[in-house]
Amino acid sequence: MLALAAGDVSASCFIAPHPRLKPYLSTYYFTAMDSGDGPEVLDWLTPEWASVRYAYHGATRGSIHTQPMVDVPRVHFVGPTTLASPFASHSARIASIGFLPLGWCRFMAEPASHWANRVGPAQDVRSHARFMDYWPAIEAAGEPRAIAAIFDAMLLDALDRAGDAACAEEALITAAHAALI
């Protein structure tokens, strides 16, 4: 899955998370970029909910809107954005987890406003999920279906450890999200 043929520039695929995680996540998404001997591939992400991204092959640069492009850590966190976000690479494979608003409440241990329109190292976000603990396994897996299984294990573990008390505002967030949709 996500193999690039000679001359291809990019490819993406999406894998649904475990059914227990559906209320909290949009999807697992995987991006492959390869410019060969050409210029760096540049793309834009539209405004979106928060995500954690693992560049398990290669390196990427990115920013929020018109801020200068910078090298981003191989495991980085992107808060909820209201602005388009450019990213670029000569060659990279990126695995990402998209968090819905209820997912923020369930998995993060700080207000979303701390990460609004911000990109930074994943270890800087306070979370019930152990994003960095799973990095070696994700890097070694190197294939979307295997990585999706690791994501499921990581997030189900965090969900089980947090218990029911993790999201006191669940009903309010669910209602607000439904109204937005």
- Quote the average pLDDT: 89
Uncertain ranges = none
Overall form: globular
Strand neighbour order, sheet with most strands: 1-2-9-4-7-10
Q: Main β-sheet, in a few words?
A: 6 strands, antiparallel
Relative strand content? 25-35%
Strand element count: 10
Spell out the helices and strands N to C. EEEEEEEEEHEHHH
Given the structure, what is the number of helices? 4
Radius of gyration: 16 Å
Helix percentage range: 10-25%
Tell me the span between the first and last alpha carbons: 31 Å
- Structural class by secondary-structure content: alpha+beta
What does this 3D model show about the protein?
This protein has 181 residues and is of the alpha+beta class. The protein has 4 helices and 10 strands. The protein has helices at 101-107, 135-141, 144-162, 170-180, and strands spanning 10-15, 25-34, 41-45, 51-58, 61-62, 70-71, 75-78, 85-89, 91-99, 119-121. Strands 1-2-9-4-7-10 form a 6-stranded antiparallel β-sheet. Strands 3-8-5-6 form a 4-stranded antiparallel β-sheet, with no helix packed on it. Strand 5 (61-62) and strand 6 (70-71) form a beta hairpin. The radius of gyration is 16 Å and the shape is globular. The model has no long low-confidence stretch (mean pLDDT 89).
